[in-house]
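Why does residue order matter? Because the sequence determines the fold. Keep that principle in mind as you read this record.
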Amino acid sequence: MRLKPGALLRFYSLCGILVQVAATKNKARGSQGQFPLTQNVTVVEGGTANLTCRVDQNDNTSLQWSNPAQQTLYFDDKKALRDNRIELVRASWHELSISVSDVSLSDEGQYTCSLFTMPVKTSKAFLTVLGVPEKPQITGFTSPVMEGERMQLTCKTSGSKPAADIRWFKNDKEVKDVKYFKEEDAVRKTFTVSSTLDFLADRSDDGAVVSCRVDHESLNSTPQIAMQVLEIHYTPLVKIISSNSWPEEGQSIILTCESKGKPVPEPVLWTKDGGELPDPERMVVNGRVLSISFLNKTDNGTYRCEAKNPIGRNSTEYVLIVHDPNALAGQTGPDHALIGGIVAVVVFVTLCSIILLGRYLARHKGTYLTNEAKGAEDAPDADTAIINAEGSQVNAEEKKEYFI
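Structure:
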């Protein structure tokens, strides 16, 4: 069958429409798999932020970056905003990357990457800008500090975002009992942070290094530190050291007075039994040292060493006992205390035995006449026995016998 020219034209037009519809459907079907991908970015104030937008499948569809104010920064490889800090890193059908240098706190916010399909698809990336804390400073220290006074040291830093953390150390040992304060700047959205260390000054703190350490994520694990060396003034601490632990007559002895204080104590004062040294020829003072030569019993006594500085004074004593070199106290021999104890026990037991024996004898002691004195048993009759008994009374005492 032969078609007319008008009918043939209508047929080609219909085929073209069908092909165009099919192509449009295929393009829409392909665009459904396209979606921009972004990541949040964190950067330190003054640093450079890199914003990257990627598309896995793209059929020549344009990409665009815009800032939190919805201003276009880049459209494909074309720069839209006049800002010398913003530069193109890479532009292709699958990626659009830009960089923002010298980032300020005002650059923080939500950035948008747009893929111009039908409809337009977007992805958000939040740019976080960290505020760097300023170098801390310690205030409140006035040198010198007297022992026992209360000290309040304050460490302060500004410009941190988020708020920085402050820690105290004394000679590398952390001090936990501190006060912490923070205040936000409503304009810049940064924080001023301070911390107070409160304690009583002690002589052990003299020369100690107190440090205030500021930790913040913007410092890359390298904290900022402020230090203060403490100077504490205190009264002298006095001690006497002897050169001879068992001084004997004829020997010499050296007594050294050690005094530690701040300011350094003045020359020390030596006294004996509350008065001046009695024998300056043998008792010589040289600075903090007292030397006594040719010791004798008259040197026995209490020696006092006194030291003072502008803060106060302190003293200590040493009791000197000069020993007889001929005494047996220091010789090695038997334990006389043990021997004496044994002797005492023996004497006590002996005395107890004698006392008991005496009491026994006193109870059993008696006298009686022998048969000879009585004359009774050998006499033939009673009268004779009586006569014999009466006649023998004269010698009765001589014939007494004692039996136990």
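The radius of gyration is 58 Å.
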